[in-house]
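From the methods appendix. Each design record in this collection lists the tokenized structure first, followed by the designed amino acid sequence. Records were kept in a plain field format so they could be parsed without special tools. The example shown here is representative of the layout used throughout.

RECORD:
FOLD TOKENS (484 positions):
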């Protein structure tokens, strides 16, 4: 069942256009979370490999890649996007086995990666500077130039989508990228490098060094040859990375997850809202930075919403990724332990409903039945901390001010959903909620690559996705010419 049908060698790093054995000649195991079995090995890159990769990236900037016209860069990214589309089923299967993600969701990730390549491929030659009226005798204009070498540290939950919004955006602006994927799920990052290689991406424009966070990851973020760092992952590691960036005085984009709420008012269209309320909590088994883990409901409809969500929860089935049920396993035994600990410490909260484990699931898989939790006070850890598993809490509120207070009452601010028919309330809440995105009568808007995304507070800073990301992946230079 878990036969990995790979079109690349995962025990190699991709550095300077070459497939190299990591310096320490070591590997890390690939675990299939659906079975708990080891199904292969990936390269364990070292600080030396990272150093080679950063040098290769710099060489690319000084060579063919650095000279490539924007339109040609765009054509190349579009070609890679086409190749990703052609391989979408294969990539989805690899991702499903590696991450434990149900096949349909993995396929959506592959299609999203293709969309990023199309979108940013088309944008390459459409980002430009301005001329600025100035004193007589001067012509002043701005140039948008790449930072240079960009570092990308990504997590295991959505490797393909995060490569799309981070690495592809950086390449679109002409940077040369070094990618360190997560130890739990590296395969599609290496697959992406293989596709870029086949497409003819100039050597060194993209380098991929799999390895441990504290080893390859820390070497990359502290490397003096890196000019910009983009990180998605935990708050704790984000803080380490911002410190490393501070020492080298380089800009950093941090995307650190959240505790995103959906606010349901009494006049909401519940038939429309219900599937969004639940899906936003259980997609990818809740291991989603923008998961909606808090459902805030006006007291007059609280019991109805809770009952209807509970009914959906009881129908959720959990099983192996390739069986493609609603929910797959968690990525690792460690992640299952983290999530289970929250459910072991309810502190007065109650489990309102759970999903069901499918019959005959492999004993070694990291399965956890989704849990809907009620009677949670907003200060409870379940309502404050990022759980990163299929757990949602339902909390009543009394009025609009109360809803805003609870919504804004965590350290995070990534995404929010507002369900109400009242137009004025929609606008007021969109302004009042502290988060990088607000969705009105929907949640996530289908995750479009066009929509700028990022956090405030402990959810991080900087924006990826959309055109906005391209400003972050470039530097503005002002040129003032005196000509008399
Ligand atoms: P993590 O933050 O440790 O891992 C993310 C990436 O950072 C991986 O590529 C890892 O190798 C790298 N990394 C780790 N230590 C590093 C260091 N010292 N220097 C440079 N890179 C380093 O996240 P982890 O341990 O996988 O998950 C723990 C928790 O973090 C989850 O339970 C969840 O709450 C949160 N998380 C949030 C994500 C999001 O999408 N915002 C994604 C993954 C985890
Ligand atoms: Mg970690």
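DESIGN:
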């Amino acid at each position: 069942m878990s036969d990995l049908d790979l079109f690349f060698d995962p025990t190699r790093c991709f550095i300077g256009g070459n497939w190299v054995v990591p310096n320490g000649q070591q590997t890390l195991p690939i675990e299939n979370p659906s079975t708990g079995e080891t199904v292969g090995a990936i390269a364990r890159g070292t600080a030396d490999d990272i150093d080679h990769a950063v040098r290769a990236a710099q060489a690319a900037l000084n060579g063919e890649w650095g000279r490539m016209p924007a339109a040609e860069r765009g054509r190349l990214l579009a070609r890679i996007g086409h190749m990703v589309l052609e391989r979408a089923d294969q990539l989805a299967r690899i991702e499903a086995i590696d991450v434990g993600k149900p096949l349909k969701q993995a396929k959506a990730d592959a299609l999203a990666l293709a969309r990023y390549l199309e979108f940013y491929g088309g944008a390459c030659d459409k980002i430009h500077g301005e001329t600025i009226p100035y004193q007589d005798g001067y012509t002043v204009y701005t140039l948008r130039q790449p930072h240079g070498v960009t570092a990308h540290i990504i997590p295991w939950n959505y490797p393909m989508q995060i490569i799309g919004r981070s690495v592809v955006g950086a390449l679109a602006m002409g940077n040369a990228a070094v990618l360190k994927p997560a130890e739990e799920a590296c395969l599609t990052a290496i697959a992406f490098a293989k596709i870029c290689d086949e497409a003819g991406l100039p050597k060194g424009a993209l380098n991929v060094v799999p390895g441990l966070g504290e080893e390859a990851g820390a070497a990359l973020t502290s490397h003096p040859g890196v000019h910009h760092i983009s990180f998605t992952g935990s708050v704790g590691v984000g803080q380490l990375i911002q410190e490393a960036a501070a020492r080298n005085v380089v800009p950093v984009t941090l995307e650190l997850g959240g505790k995103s709420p959906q606010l349901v008012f009494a006049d909401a269209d519940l038939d429309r809202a219900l599937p969004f309320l639940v899906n936003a909590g259980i997609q990818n088994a809740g291991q989603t930075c923008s998961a909606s883990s808090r459902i805030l409901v006006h007291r007059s409809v609280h019991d109805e919403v809770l009952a209807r969500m509970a009914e959906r929860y009881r129908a959720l089935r959990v099983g192996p990724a390739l069986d493609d049920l609603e929910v797959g396993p968690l990525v690792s035994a460690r992640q299952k332990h983290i999530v289970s600990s929250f459910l072991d410490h309810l502190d007065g909260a109650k489990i309102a409903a759970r999903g069901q484990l499918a019959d005959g699931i492999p004993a070694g898989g990291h399965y956890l039945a989704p849990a809907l939790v009620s009677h949670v006070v907003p200060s409870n850890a379940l309502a404050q901390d990022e759980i990163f598993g299929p757990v949602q809490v339902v909390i009543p509120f009394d009025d609009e001010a109360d809803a805003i207070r609870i919504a804004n009452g965590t350290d995070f601010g990534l995404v929010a959903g507002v369900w109400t028919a009242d137009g004025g309330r929609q606008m007021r809440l969109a302004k009042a909620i502290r988060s990088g995105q607000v969705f009105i009568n929907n949640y996530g808007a289908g995750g479009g690559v066009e929509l700028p995304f990022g956090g405030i507070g402990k959810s991080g800073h900087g924006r990826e996705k959309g055109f906005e990301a391209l400003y972050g992946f470039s530097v503005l230079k002002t040129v003032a010419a005196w000509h008399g």
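APPENDIX NOTE: The chain has a mean pLDDT of 97.
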